[in-house]
Write a structure and sequence with these properties.
about 160 residues; mainly alpha
């Protein structure tokens, strides 16, 4: 059979090609998982910053309303919002802005502890009188938020400590 040309691949060549593709896929899979985790961590940082900025803006508006005598400060009031929902609903601060001022369009979700479908986002909260590392909320106001996730970040820190 001299002069016969082969136009296909042998079984050995096919097995080698499939093995190489499997090795490449197994190397890429952990990389994609790490990328997905890093993306969720970036979103967590962004959402925490968004909520904390809104809380700080609420406090500044409260202080401005007290300063301009639009509302009367009481000993029990810290000036921080009573709930996260108040940042979405808005507050008029005694007519300081002429209408309710809203600080968030919606409460961003915790990407490390996503809510169940139809449920509002769940965040850990601390009031002004709580200890900085308190795991329970005093319910007087919302001074700070944190993730309820028990997970550990890429850098080894706990999400709830961010």
């Amino acid at each position: 059979m001299i002069g016969r040309s082969t136009k296909g691949v042998t079984l050995v060549e096919l097995i080698i090609a499939v093995t190489l593709l499997a090795l490449l896929a197994s190397a890429v899979l952990p990389f994609t998982r790490m990328t997905a985790k890093r993306t969720r961590e970036i979103e967590l940082h962004r959402n925490l910053r968004t909520i904390r900025t809104a809380i700080d803006d609420y406090k500044k508006a409260y202080d401005k309303a007290v300063e301009q005598k639009k509302i009367v400060a009481t000993l029990q009031a810290s000036g921080y919002p009573k709930t996260l929902e108040l940042l979405v609903e808005g507050e008029d601060f005694g007519g300081l802005y002429g209408a309710k001022r809203k600080f968030l369009r919606r409460i961003p979700p915790d990407p490390m502890n996503p809510p169940q479908p139809g449920q509002p986002p769940q965040w850990g909260m601390r009031s002004y009188t709580d200890q900085p590392d308190a795991a329970s909320w005093g319910k007087e106001d919302v001074f700070d938020v944190y993730s309820l996730s028990e997970g550990v970040a890429i850098d080894g820190s706990s999400y709830k400590d961010w």
